[in-house]
Amino acid sequence: MVLTNGNEMFKAARDGQYAIGAFNTNNLEWTRAILAAGQATNTPILIQTSMGAGKYMGGYKLVQNLVANTIESMNITVPVVMHLDHGNYEAAKEAIEAGYNSVMFDGHDLPFEENLEKTKEIVKLAHAKGISVEGEVGSIGGEEDGIVGAGELADVEEAKQLAATGVDYLAVGIGNIHGVYPENWTGLNFDRLKELADAIDTPLVLHGGSGIPKEQIVKAISMGIAKVNVNTEQQIAWSDAVKEYYNAGNDKKEKGFDPRKVLAPGTKAIQDTVESRIDWFGTPSI
Ligand SMILES: [Zn+2]
Question: 86 C-alpha to center of ligand 1: Å?
Fold first, then answer.
């Protein structure tokens, strides 16, 4: 069975001080590129959709079928976790119904007690079906916080309480930010990561993995981060490769306007980026 909830994988990653990459898909090409990277490196991989990407593609059921069918048509043999990234309460329930292997319930905008209660409910629903859950404590900085040089920091006591809900992995704010990092970013907060890692055994998740220098990511992984989310990096790689195709006038050459030709360099660029991150994260081959 290629599709898996990944529980054992992420526990082993935390124990073994390596991480498994979580890569966002947006369409068929993205899906193929991410799966191809996992297969080429012979490593387990997590493929995820945001709520927005799920909506864009036509719903979670369609995405789940797309990933499952692509695994089959590409003869993928490495373990794959199909995951919902940053789901709200309703989205998490929908993805559970649609057959995802894993869902993130992101209640960080809610009052903490409500985040805790709703996380417990999602854990109960998901675990009854053998589906994993990622919780989130403390908010993670985003583009709108571009003027602030430090991302949010998770509160250790809140992290302990969320871990106690039985979540299978926990996203923690340690100064990380989504999207492009501002010039004045102060870096990851390793003191806070150490406090969190000492307090809880749950595999920890680092969001906003695009744009963090390699040495900081490697250090964070050695301290308890077992899942690293990377999204923006693939988007930039894709966009640059497609732009280069047009800049070189390739669309004017023989049938160069064929979408399959236009999209090929972008797809290759996504695969290359994913493979390079798998290398950074030290994910061992199976
Ligand atoms: Zn995130």
Answer: 6
Length of the chain: 286
Whether 85 is catalytic:
yes
Q: How far does residue 254's CA lie from ligand 1's centre (Å)?
A: 41
**pLDDT tens profile 130-167:** 999 999 987 555 544 344 456 778 989 999 999 999 99
Ligand 1 centroid – CA 208 distance (Å):
6
- Average pLDDT value for residue range 226-239: 96
Q: Which is catalytic among the residues 15, 85, 201, 279?
A: 85
Q: For the chain, what is the domain count?
A: 1
- CATH code, domain with 178: 3.20.20.70
Q: What is the token pair recorded at 12? A: 């082993």
Assess if residue 69 is contained within a domain: yes
CA distance 23 to 209: 10
Q: Answer whether residue 167 is part of any domain.
A: yes
Structure-token pair, residue 244? 């280069």
User: Is there a contact between 186 and 166 (Cβ–Cβ < 8 Å)?
Assistant: no
Percent of the chain topping pLDDT 70? 95
Q: Alpha-carbon distance 16 to 260, whole Å?
A: 40
Q: Is the pTM higher than 0.90?
A: yes
Q: Quote the ligand 1 centre to 229 CA distance (angstroms).
A: 7
- CA dihedral angle for residue 67, residue 69, residue 73, residue 75, rounded to 10 degrees: 60
Q: For the chain, give the mean pLDDT.
A: 94
